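Let us work through a complete example step by step.
Step 1: write down the sequence.
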Amino acid sequence: PYSWSESGEFVSGYYGIFKFSKDNKRLDLAGYVENGDHMTISPNDDYVAYGSLESGQGEIYVQPFPATGEKWQISTDGGTDPVWTKDGNGIFYHNDLRIYYVKINSFAPFDHDPPEVFYKGPFINAVSRSIGVGKNKDRILILEQVRGSQLSAEAVVTLNWFEEVKKLAPVQ
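Step 2: predict the structure and record it as tokens.
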């Protein structure tokens, strides 16, 4: 999943937003964007940011959730992988070797500042998220490749993580 809604009722994936069934045993499609990807739900659950090729190149858009037909392009020169700030007042995204930040000024009517370069330099463009955002834009995690190092093709998955932690660090 790309993001969870604040209410825990919705989860976003690459191509859509899904709602948990009442018995929590399945996910039902709750919304999607034609030609959209990397969908992420705003912290207030009212908006979705996503990437789309509808302009001919990858750009970042925001639209209400559920969809009303309104949408706004917030990137100006390409972009992918949007991530909301925890307070919902901004969105990070990346393009090439730059990470951009767009400040959201208001939602009704929707208004935002132009994108500003937040970080420039080599970073790892992960298959999923390349950017992690803390409570505000002052805390951000970027996977950066160390010069001269090689990327590993290995991924480690830990199953039953809590049980493993209990074994390694038992409660006294």
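Step 3: interpret the result. The two ends are 35 Å apart (CA to CA).
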